[in-house]
Amino acid sequence: MEASDKSLQIPPNALGDNRHICAFFNGMDEHYRVLNSFIKEGFEQGDRAFHLVDPERREEHLRRLADTGIDVEEAIESGQLEVHPWQDGPLHGARFDQDEWLEGFEHVLQSGPAAGYTQTRFLAQMEWALVDLPGVDDLIEFETRVNYVVPKYDDAVICAYDMSRFDASTVIYALRTHPVVIIGGLVQENPFYVDPDQLLVELRERRSPHVGAGSLH
After folding, report:
1. Is residue 166 within 8 Å of residue 136, measured between CB atoms?
2. Mean pLDDT of the chain
3. What span, in angstroms and rounded, lies between the C-alpha atoms of 154 and 110?
4. Complete domains list, the chain, with CATH
5. End-to-end CA distance of the chain, in Å?
């Protein structure tokens, strides 16, 4: 899409109290083409960057950031940039424990001001939910619960989904858990967002032992 070639601007003060953002892409080239401007802007403004990435793509991720002019080595040494593999976050202990990671996620947001940063720009590449490990079927319930955490902080949280890898059902449910969405490089308020109280009831009613993260019905 042509919109994907345009720089992405997400003024945090224009997003309301809940800056839990879902970004949909078709492949990693579009992912970086759209998000790199947002990431670079954060560095220029002195924000902290916390990224959760595929461990097999960490070096590529750092190279893509460097290609935008970010001094990656200096940013890591100063603590402004943290790039962690999924195993340091949602897949800690070779499983997904949504309660444990929700606590860990909130700790990340809490730690920004303590380190001297007014805002953290949190980016998670969500393909960790496709790894065959216990608990990943709780992805959408976790995404729903994140909406109780994000409004307490001033941070922008982007969950990046590669639509070429997730099935339609998961994409639809992911859409319902984020008040702001990026599609085709365009940022917009999400009309399909569902209040977390309501969606949690629905998810728990529909939950089945045969349902997985890639095929939630």
Report:
1. no
2. 90
3. 10
4. 20-194 (3.40.50.300)
5. 29
CB atoms within 10 A of CB 100: 15
The residue type of 190 is N
Question: What tokens appear for 2 in the block?
Answer: 């042509």
**Average pLDDT score over residue span 197-203:** 95
- What is the Cα–Cα distance from 183 to 160, expressed in whole angstroms? 11
For the stretch 67-119, pLDDT in tens is: 999 999 999 999 999 999 999 999 999 999 999 999 999 999 999 999 999 99
Per-residue confidence band for 151, with pLDDT thresholds at 50, 70 and 90: very high
Return d(Cα 29, Cα 150) in angstroms, integer. 28
Q: How many CB atoms lie within 10 A of CB 166?
A: 22
Complete edge-to-edge strand list for the sheet that includes strand 48-53: 81-85, 48-53, 120-125, 156-162, 20-25, 180-183, 186-189
Give the Cα separation of 138 and 70 in Å (integer).
35
Q: Model's pTM, two decimal places? A: 0.89
Nearest-angstrom CA–CA distance, 193 and 60: 33
Q: Report residue 86 as tokens.
A: 């999924």
